[in-house]
Amino acid sequence: MSFVQVPADSDFPLQNLPYGVFSTRNEPRPRIGVAIGNHILDLSKVTHLFTGPQLLANQDALKSETLNKFMSLGRPAWKEARETIRHILSAQEAVLRDDKELQSRCLVLQSDAVMHLPAAIGNYTDFYSSIDHARNVGTMFRGPENALMPNWLHLPVGYHGRASSVVVSGTPIRRPRGQTRPDADKPPQFGPCKLLDFELEMAYFIGPGNQLGEPIPVDKACDHIFGLVIMNDWSARDIQKWEYQPLGPFLAKNFGTTISPWVVTMDALEPFIIDNCKQELTPLPYLVHNYPFTFNIELKVGIQADNMATPTTVCTSNMKNLYWTLAQQLAHHSITGCNMTTGDLLATGTISGQTPDSYGSMLELSWRGSKPVAIGNGDTRKFIRDGDNVVMTACCHGDGYKIGFGQCAGKILPALQ
């Protein structure tokens, strides 16, 4: 237990301790914090309490405006920091509990904080690692007999995305404009996207990188993954349909990608590791790992129209629905010798389950626009409208506590005229 009061249903008990970057009106400089209950522990105010061998010489990493330097220190430093934070927030430890003056400086209400991107993101990669999602989309466009492309069961399919348009939860997203071709017998036209979609994903930040030319072995991949966030990889389906051949998504994806502000560490998620998905084909040796690295994380998507007080749930999925593990994704990404760098963001791709209520996109939920999706008050959606706020959440349930990620939310603004 912590001496900081933690509500029973909080995403942020002492077992979690996710990292984020925040600022306040009185102190507008972004700084690193750790969520505990409804508060944020401002690490820049308590660096003197980090006296272990890993962080004593690297206390400046805790005073940075992004997590990049801290993430670059690697797993021993992450573990040491977590142990120190758990210690100083413990109800049994007096160093912060009994120092009211220090508490007044280092404990900030989350309601008084503005959250920022947790890291400077140099590169962003999106995978396509949910077999149910891949089969659903493939069935729509190629039929069930050709749903999976020939390479899908052999490697984690992915593409490079646009890092500059990754934004933190709460940032409005402007409906994109672009070329579409709704009628195959007529020339393309230009205008606002009419088939705007969300994609329910998780994403992970890279800690230490690798040297150019030296791949990350699949058995060492865990040492390079710092933690997870929720991701909404917004998608303009009509723009994508016209542009994606032969090189894949471009303008259909580059207008905005939303992530949750709190990075939940792999140490916090360790109790929720489960057996990996049984793969239909044995992959090549560089992708084979025998340790479990699949996570039982419950996922939910809600849509809140302008006239609604709260979001209506339209999807409940789980990260365990991934076919390719994070370790396999990272090993494949770097097998060419591609050098991963601290702060790189790698996403899972849309996470869908086997039942219709677990489909992680409107494309699937409405089955290519053929089935209206109820969002409450007698209203329905086939795709996302202007004014809609899409809210994603994720959590793991422990014994008497939960590990949550906060919200990944974004409201759609009308396209520019």
| Individual helix count | 9
Number of strands: 26
Question: How confident overall, as mean pLDDT?
Answer: 97
Low-confidence stretches: none
Percent range for β-strand residues: 25-35%
How would a textbook summarize the main sheet?
A: 8 strands, mixed
Shape: globular
Helix content: 10-25%
* Structure classification: alpha+beta
- Determine the oligomeric state from the structure: single chain
**Which value, in Å, is the CA radius of gyration?**
22 Å
Spell out the blueprint of helices and strands.
Layout: E1 19-24, E2 31-36, E3 39-42, H1 68-72, H2 75-89, H3 94-97, H4 100-106, E4 107-109, E5 113-116, E6 124-127, H5 131-142, E7 158-160, E8 166-168, E9 173-174, E10 177-180, E11 189-192, E12 196-197, E13 200-206, E14 225-232, E15 235-236, H6 237-243, E16 257-259, E17 264-265, H7 266-269, E18 273-274, E19 294-295, E20 298-304, E21 312-318, H8 326-334, E22 345-347, H9 362-365, E23 373-376, E24 379-381, E25 389-397, E26 402-413
Parallel strand pairs: 6-22, 8-16, 9-26
Antiparallel strand pairs: 1-2, 1-5, 2-3, 3-4, 6-7, 10-11, 12-15, 13-14, 13-22, 14-16, 14-17, 18-19, 20-21, 20-25, 23-24, 25-26
